[in-house]
């Protein structure tokens, strides 16, 4: 039995590390990007920004996973891409600031912000 004990400890530590890294998304960075990039674009092209509290956590998760933006005309992932950020960084400070951030990391940050501010969260957030 003793030889198994170190293996179990290592497995538990690895599981804890995976859990911690999965929670490493930065909601503050997600808020900055969402408000300075997503909301600004929606204000320019639509009637106004889309508040995080406009959807539930499950609705935001489903929307991001479906990866369809503008009624399916393009993808959500594009707006988190280095390519998109490079195209707007001259006129957008957040895009410039996060120009080299990996796409998936930035998307995880925004997802965390949306989840934390969703309609069914403890602290629904508006963009007013």
Specify the structural class: mainly alpha
Measured between the Cα atoms of the first and last residue, the distance is 60 Å
Helix proportion: 55-70%
Please outline the major beta sheet. Answer: none
| Number of H/I helices | 6
Number of domains: 1
Oligomer: single chain
How would you explain this protein's 3D organization?
The radius of gyration is 18 Å and the shape is globular. It has one domain. The longest helix is centred in the first third of the chain and has 19 residues. Helix 2 crosses helix 6 and helix 3 runs antiparallel to helix 6. It is built from six helices and no strands. It is an all-alpha fold and 128 residues long. The relative contact order is 0.19.
Essential attributes:
globular; single chain; 0% strand; 128 residues; mainly alpha
Summarize the structure.
Helices cover 59% and strands 0% of the residues. The chain has 128 residues and is mostly helical. The protein has one domain (25-117).
Give the topology.
Blueprint: H1 4-22, H2 27-45, H3 57-66, H4 82-88, H5 93-97, H6 103-117
């Amino acid at each position: 039995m003793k030889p198994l004990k170190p293996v179990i400890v290592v497995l538990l530590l690895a599981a804890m590390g995976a859990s911690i890294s999965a929670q490493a998304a930065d909601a503050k960075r997600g808020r900055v990007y969402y408000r300075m990039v997503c909301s600004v674009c929606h204000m320019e092209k639509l009637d106004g920004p889309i508040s995080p509290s406009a959807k539930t956590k499950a609705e935001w998760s489903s929307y991001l996973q479906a990866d369809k933006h503008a009624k399916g005309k393009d993808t959500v992932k594009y707006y988190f891409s280095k390519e998109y950020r490079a195209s707007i960084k001259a006129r957008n400070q957040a895009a410039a600031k996060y120009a080299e951030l990996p796409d998936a990391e930035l998307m995880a940050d925004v997802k965390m912000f949306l989840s934390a501010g969703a309609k069914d969260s403890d602290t629904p957030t508006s963009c007013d």
